[in-house]
Design brief:
5 helices
Length: 123
């Protein structure tokens, strides 16, 4: 009877030891797998940063200007003489008000003057 109880205890201890060893192996395996994934994520982040930098470089105005000038195209940068200046609507309105005769200015209907005083010019 003592031999059978001893064998049962040895089988139980062996099973527990095997289960513990198996769990420890799984823990180490998951740790290595996590480390590999972490390295892969760092590589992807670095690659993303490099690609973002390359995209921003390719879309920069300086790069596009050099590309246009290097390609024998008909395009060229605008000179200060080719810039057209336009008056804003507010400047045109004030200038037109100054040109209108005073007789025309005084004949505005009260409704129009009320509505025009509430309109705010765009900024």
């Amino acid at each position: 009877m003592k031999l059978t109880s001893f064998l049962r205890m040895m089988v139980f201890i062996t099973a527990v030891a095997l289960a513990y060893t198996h769990l420890q192996m799984k823990i180490f395996d998951l740790a290595y797998e996590g480390k590999k994934k972490e390295n892969h994520i760092h590589q992807l982040i670095e690659q993303n940063g490099n690609l973002t930098y390359q995209i921003l470089t390719l879309e920069s105005a300086n790069h596009l200007g050099y590309e246009l000038l290097n390609k024998d195209s008909d395009m060229q940068f605008g000179s200060p003489d080719s810039i057209t200046k336009m008056r804003s609507a507010q400047e045109s309105f004030h200038e037109d008000q100054g040109r209108m005769p005073s007789a025309v200015k005084g004949k505005e209907s009260p409704l129009v003057s009320l509505l025009s005083s509430r309109i705010k010019p765009a900024e």
